[in-house]
Write a structure and sequence with these properties.
Keywords: Membrane, Transmembrane, Transmembrane helix. This protein is mainly α. Helix content is 74%, strand content 0%.
Amino acid sequence: MGKLIPLEVGNLDGIVVLIVLVMFGPALLFLIIGLVIRKKNSKAAKVFYIIAGVYLLVSLGICGSLIS
């Protein structure tokens, strides 16, 4: 066998930004939607808050395990 050459990985900033957007983007969007419709329909706003919290919890668990 020959000599092993270590592979160089280039700049991974784009992948990190994409993972962070997937982690926080939809949860932030659901939170903003909940804040906007809070005056009109408080029950629907609470549903959006719960969806945002659950999405954030799951995405931090999945994407957090991918990052570390």
